[in-house]
């Protein structure tokens, strides 16, 4: 009787020992993970780091595993943009109002407030451009006039290849279609120097990172008054529009754009406002 009981007890221990060992072994990683979670702010980050460490340990030296930081860096490079592709807060001319209407009517007071806020935004944007590039009014206007002359000359000559570097991607597509669909075989265009007048109408920052104001695109809207000579010809050389011996006064409103965080950036045409 005693001998049979002892044999049964040995059989029970022999069956239970392996299952107990397996349970303790499988619970050790979970116990380690639970202890490590309170030490960091995000449990998800802790889990990723743990699994990344295990993957790196099991990966052969010839093919190292990519860490989350490396993957994020690659994604950031792929998502980098050279232009927003749109004009932020485009300028629109407003009708003049009298002093009495501006001061003693609700609509006048509301408009005064909106114009004041708009001026503050422009001042802030110009201040950031000055801080980054040492922006001065004369230098900016000289660059604007040069850009205005070059783009119009290339448009007249139909030089789409050279035009690309002076405009943004979206604007290049627009100007390329204009050249393609115009009915003139050749154009004579001439800018009479000096420019009659250049002035700034609006300046804005188009941000890409809400935590860093310098990761933005500056857009400055300018008004250009100039005297020009224009004449267009058909395929036979006959004049179909304009007169190259006559000066005409032209008013244009252009939006120039420049990145504040790309190395080697410069002013480019990103939009035109109809007048």
From TrEMBL:
InterPro entries xref list: mtLSU_mL45, NTF2-like_dom_sf, Tim44-like_dom
Keywords: Mitochondrion, Ribonucleoprotein, Ribosomal protein, Transit peptide
UniProt record similarity statement: Belongs to the mitochondrion-specific ribosomal protein mL45 family.
Subcellular localization: Mitochondrion
Pfam families: Tim44
Gene Ontology CC terms, in alphabetical order: mitochondrion; ribonucleoprotein complex; ribosome
Entries under SMART domains matching the protein: Tim44
Entries under Gene3D superfamilies matching the protein: 3.10.450.240
Protein name as annotated: Large ribosomal subunit protein mL45
């Amino acid at each position: 009787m005693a001998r049979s009981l002892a044999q049964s007890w040995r059989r029970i221990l022999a069956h239970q020992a392996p299952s107990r060992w397996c349970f303790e072994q499988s619970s050790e990683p979970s116990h380690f993970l639970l202890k490590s979670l309170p030490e960091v702010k995000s449990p998800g980050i802790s889990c990723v780091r743990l699994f990344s460490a295990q993957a790196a340990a099991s990966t052969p030296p010839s093919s190292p595993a990519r860490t989350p930081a490396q993957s994020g860096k690659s994604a950031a490079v792929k998502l980098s943009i050279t232009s927003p592709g749109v004009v932020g807060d485009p300028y629109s001319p407003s009708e003049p109002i009298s002093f009495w209407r501006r001061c003693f009517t609700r609509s006048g007071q509301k408009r005064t407030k909106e114009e004041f806020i708009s001026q503050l935004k422009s001042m802030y944007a110009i201040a950031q451009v000055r801080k980054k590039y040492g922006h001065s009014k004369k230098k900016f206007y000289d660059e604007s006039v040069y850009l205005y002359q070059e783009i119009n000359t290339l448009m007249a000559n139909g030089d789409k290849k050279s035009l690309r570097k002076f405009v943004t991607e979206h604007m290049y597509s627009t100007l390329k279609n204009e050249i393609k669909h115009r009915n003139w075989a050749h154009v004579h265009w001439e800018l009479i120097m000096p420019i009659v007048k250049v002035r700034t109408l609006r300046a804005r920052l188009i941000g890409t990172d809400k935590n860093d104001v310098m990761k933005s695109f500056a857009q400055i809207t300018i008004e250009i008054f100039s005297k020009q000579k224009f004449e267009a010809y058909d395929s036979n050389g006959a004049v179909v529009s304009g007169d190259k011996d006559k000066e005409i006064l032209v008013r244009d409103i252009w939006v120039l754009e420049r990145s504040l965080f790309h190395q080697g950036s410069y002013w480019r045409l990103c939009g035109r406002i109809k007048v």
